[in-house]
TrEMBL record, chain B:
This is Heme exporter protein D. It is found in: Cell inner membrane. One of its GO terms (biological process) is heme transport. The chain crosses the membrane at residues 12-32. One of its GO terms (cellular component) is plasma membrane.
TrEMBL record, chain C:
It is a multi-pass membrane protein. InterPro entries: Cyt_c_assembly, Cyt_c_biogenesis_CcmC, Cyt_c_biogenesis_CcsA/CcmC. The gene is ccmC. Residues 4-183 form the Cytochrome c assembly protein domain. Keywords: Cell inner membrane, Cell membrane, Cytochrome c-type biogenesis, Membrane, Transmembrane, Transmembrane helix, Transport. This is Heme exporter protein C. The keyword Signal does not apply. One of its GO terms (molecular function) is heme binding. GO terms for biological process: cytochrome complex assembly. It comes from Mameliella alba. It comes from the Bacteria.
Length: 218, 52, 249
């Protein structure tokens, strides 16, 4: 399992692995928003938590098809399927690798981008916390979507259509934590709900993803 | 016969119109597709019977 | 004699052929009665004016939008557990109907909301959840279309339906947490609606009876369309199978 994880990480970091693309995308989205809504700092402060959450979510979505696509093309996914490792384990490791290469950089970069959007003072901490709690859920849900569309030629667009509705609860609670944090309100309830979603999803969804992957590899 | 709908006539009539159009559209699409597929299946079955 | 006999496609097509005219006629009768009764012979509400007549479309459509998804969920479960092809195809057949019902619910609601709430659209929990439900329908149908192999498609879509149901429920509560809404609570089946006591908090009996008839009409319409569309799907699959055999022979 650890061997698989390090292999995935190494592949992602190497040239052509697309590591950092999500981060660049996140930066560009954040930069584009003020062009779209105008430079008034008051407005930007208000929408900053939501924009940063949506930017992180889209950056995450963008890199999802890499989870299985390369392994599918060169056949190593079939090898993995016959390996002694259970499919649920493979799927979980894949999701973890995706989170480390995409989610974690986003979490670390978000406060820095918050400066660009004039995020309110206490918001930095809560934005960081909510993304740190929420992005694993995005990776796990995304792995399910990637597993559903793995064999399809133009699966990318379809995958967005399938995955984005599934992101709704995570986005709502995550952005709510960040928004309430930025406005200095109590964050406990949405924070607990967000944590519940993340842990619940991480515990249960790999079974669905593994089932889907088995069907697709049949 | 037409009931007095008052100032909301447009609202009521347009919602009825939209709904009925959507329902009829759904029915027509379903029936047409059903006919087409049925005919296609018959054609294939007969051809295969002829060819043995 | 058990219900699983109808899992045989031939038997299903034959039974559906027998049932279809009856269900269709009953659906037409109920729909026409309910809608005509509601449209022409019910009084105006003292606050909503004549817009109250939209209820005969809005409520049944919204109800069927959810029931269609439930039916797909059950059909998907049956497919996963017992692997009856008719079940998977019935789920596929129901999806576009459910999506249409969702659109009707949303559109009539928007048209009604314009004069009543003063806005076409509000990010109210119920409205939002219906929009999300519509997205789920779209994704489900798109996945069916995208996959060529029939059994794979049936497997994947039924798992998507299960996972989607969980997330749709989650979204429902998340959205309620996110925004308290404008939409009135459900007033149709509140206490007294069936026993006939008029209270201010529920739909009065004047409106309830035609609504009930129209609701039954929508259910029958859904049933008729599902029967018809499932037949179509079975035949389409048989055509594909025959063609495939022809090519390989």
């Amino acid at each position: 399992m650890i061997a698989l994880l390090t292999r995935d990480l190494r592949l992602a970091v190497r040239a052509g692995g697309g590591f950092g693309l999500g981060l660049a995308f996140f930066l560009i989205v954040t930069v584009l928003v003020p062009f779209g809504v105008g430079p008034q700092t008051g407005l930007l402060t208000r929408i900053a938590p939501g924009i940063l959450w949506i930017g992180a979510l889209l950056a995450c979505l963008l890199s999802l098809d890499r989870i299985f696509a390369l392994d599918w093309e060169d056949g190593s996914l079939d090898l993995l399927a016959t390996a002694p490792l259970p499919m649920e384990g493979i799927v979980s490791v894949k999701a973890l690798a995706h989170w480390i290469t995409t989610g974690l950089p986003l979490v670390l970069a978000a406060p820095a981008l918050g400066v660009l959007l004039n995020l309110a003072g206490p918001g930095y901490l809560w934005l960081f916390v909510s993304l740190a709690l929420g992005t694993p859920a995005l990776s796990v849900i995304g792995t399910f979507g990637a597993a559903l569309t793995v064999g399809l030629k133009r699966g990318g667009l379809l995958m967005s259509l399938l995955v984005l509705p599934l992101y709704v609860p995570t986005l709502i609670f995550g952005a709510e934590v960040a928004r309430r944090g930025a406005e200095g309100l109590a964050v406990q309830t949405p924070l607990l709900m967000l944590a519940g979603i993340s842990f619940g999803v991480a515990a249960l969804l790999p079974f669905a993803s593994a089932a889907v992957l088995r069907i697709n590899l049949r | 016969m037409m009931p007095e709908l008052g100032k909301y006539a447009g609202t009521v009539l347009s919602s009825y119109a939209v709904s009925l159009v959507l329902i009829v559209l759904l029915i027509v699409v379903s029936v047409l597709r059903s006919r087409r597929i049925k005919a296609e299946l018959q054609r294939i079955e007969e051809r295969q019977k002829k060819n043995g | 004699m058990s219900i699983w006999e109808y899992a045989n496609p031939v038997k299903f097509i034959r039974t559906a052929d027998v049932l279809l005219p009856w269900v269709t006629v009953a659906a037409v009768i109920c729909l026409v009665t309910g809608l005509v009764w509601g449209f022409f012979f019910t009084p105006e509400d003292f606050r909503q004016g004549s817009t109250v007549k939209i209820i005969y479309l809005h409520v049944p459509a919204a109800m069927m939008a959810i029931n269609a998804w439930l039916m797909m969920l059950i059909a998907s479960l049956i497919w996963i557990v017992r692997r009856h092809h008719v079940s998977a195809l019935a789920a596929r057949a129901a999806a576009p109907i459910g999506a249409t019902m969702t659109v009707i619910g949303l559109v009539t609601g928007a048209i009604w909301g314009q004069p009543m709430w003063g806005t076409w659209w509000a990010w109210d929990p119920r409205l939002t959840v219906f929009l999300i439900l519509f997205l789920f329908y779209l994704g489900y149908m798109a996945l069916w279309e995208a996959i060529e192999d029939d059994d794979t498609a049936a497997d994947l879509t039924s798992i998507l339906c299960l996972v989607g149901s969980v997330f749709a429920l989650l979204s429902r509560y998340a959205v309620q947490f996110w925004n308290q809404g404008l939409h009135q609570g459900s007033s149709v089946l509140r206490a007294g609606a069936v026993t006939g006591v008029d209270t201010t908090e529920k739909v009065s009996n004047v409106y309830f009876m035609p609504l009930l008839v129209s609701g039954i009409g929508f259910v029958l319409l859904f049933l008729a369309l599902v029967l018809l569309r499932t037949q179509t799907e079975i035949r389409a699959r048989r055509s594909r199978a025959l063609l495939a055999r022809e090519r390989s022979a």
